[in-house]
């Protein structure tokens, strides 16, 4: 009996350990994905951090982002240039931004807006304006806000990127607002008032791609967190993660799978603890195959096995 009990004990241990050894890599995997999700690739200097203050010196707009532009322009001979790429400097200033601006759209409409204007410090006349609104005319639901337009103003004389361009030519890249068809950017950069929009991976949008309104312009936003229509807070509200980033970054499924893995582990441990407390006869009855598996490990195995089989048959007869 004692010999048998020891043997059972040993078997339980080996089973216990093998389930642990399959669980541990799983847990490590969970931890690894947790840390991976937490470390965004941040490129330090290229991410600008801009805040627009209202009359009470509270932020109405906050934007952390790396912004890159791709622009075409007309040369002196009226031919269209190759596209040039340039970043919006991280140290751009925010003069002429506004928490309350009526933006004239067409002849009839004025849209209440908040506007972040980023002025390039080393390029006179260059700026990017980013417009937010809550106006239902632009399809924004009550209690939400959206980024609905971006414009870029360039000055051919204050950059060396616009080769062969006419001197002192100032051009503003934009798309006219179409009330029946919101631009893609308005559909993406959209959330509840009080929440911030969070999009770590790069997202690109055309500012203009219609030759009737001048040369093309394209904007790429990355490492983005922004919020407009802030309500007296100095910090970003709850993050609303862009659809494009939800699968990589959303930490909830990672936590849930980690918790599930732990539950499975504890269930297994509880099972083996419970099993180790069962009388050995019942064990032999419920799991005779354990005895067989163990065959090659024991010299004295045959004796025991005979004994077991005998006992087992005896029990069988009784039922
Ligand atoms: C801000 O607006 C004022 C008035 O329209 C203008 O004179 C000034 O040049 C603007 N500043 C910038 C940096 O755009
Ligand atoms: C364009 O750049 C030139 C050269 O830096 C500067 O003299 C001029 O004032 C700028 N134009 C505007 C509208 O800012």
TrEMBL record:
Residues 1-37 form the signal peptide. One of its GO terms (biological process) is establishment of protein localization to organelle. GO terms for cellular component: late endosome membrane; lysosomal membrane; plasma membrane. The keyword Transcription regulation does not apply. This is Uncharacterized protein. It comes from Pristionchus entomophagus. Residues 289-319 are annotated as: Disordered. Residues 295-319 have a biased composition (Basic and acidic residues). It comes from the Eukaryota. The chain crosses the membrane at residues 251-274.
């Amino acid at each position: 009996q004692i010999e048998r009990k020891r043997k059972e004990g040993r078997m339980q241990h080996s089973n216990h350990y093998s389930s642990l050894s399959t669980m541990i890599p799983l847990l490590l995997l969970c931890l690894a994905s947790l840390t991976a999700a937490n470390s965004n690739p941040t490129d330090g200097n290229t991410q600008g951090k801009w805040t627009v203050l209202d009359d009470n010196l509270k932020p109405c707009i906050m934007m952390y982002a790396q912004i890159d532009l791709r622009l075409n322009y007309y040369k002196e001979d009226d031919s269209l240039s190759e596209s040039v790429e340039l970043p919006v400097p991280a140290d751009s200033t925010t003069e002429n931004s506004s928490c309350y601006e009526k933006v004239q759209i067409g002849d009839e409409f004025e849209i209440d807006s908040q506007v972040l204007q980023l002025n390039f410090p080393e390029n006179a006349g260059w700026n990017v304006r980013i417009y937010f609104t809550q106006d239902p005319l632009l399809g924004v639901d009550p209690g939400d806000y959206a980024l609905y337009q971006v414009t870029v103003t360039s000055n051919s004389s204050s950059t060396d990127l616009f080769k062969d361009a006419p001197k002192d030519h100032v051009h503003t890249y934009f798309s006219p607002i179409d009330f029946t068809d919101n631009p893609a950017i308005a559909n993406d950069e959209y959330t509840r008032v009080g929440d911030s929009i969070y999009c770590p991976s790069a997202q690109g949008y055309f500012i203009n791609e219609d030759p009737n309104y001048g040369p093309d312009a394209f904007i790429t936003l990355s490492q983005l967190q922004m919020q407009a229509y802030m309500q007296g807070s100095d910090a970003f509200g709850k993050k609303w993660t862009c659809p494009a980033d939800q699968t990589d970054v959303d930490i909830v499924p990672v936590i849930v799978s980690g918790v599930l893995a732990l539950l499975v582990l504890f269930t297994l441990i509880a099972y083996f603890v419970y099993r180790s407390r069962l009388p050995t006869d019942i064990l032999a009855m419920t799991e005779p195959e354990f005895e067989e598996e163990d065959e090659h490990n024991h010299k004295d195995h045959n004796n025991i096995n005979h004994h077991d089989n005998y006992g087992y048959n005896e029990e069988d007869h009784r039922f």
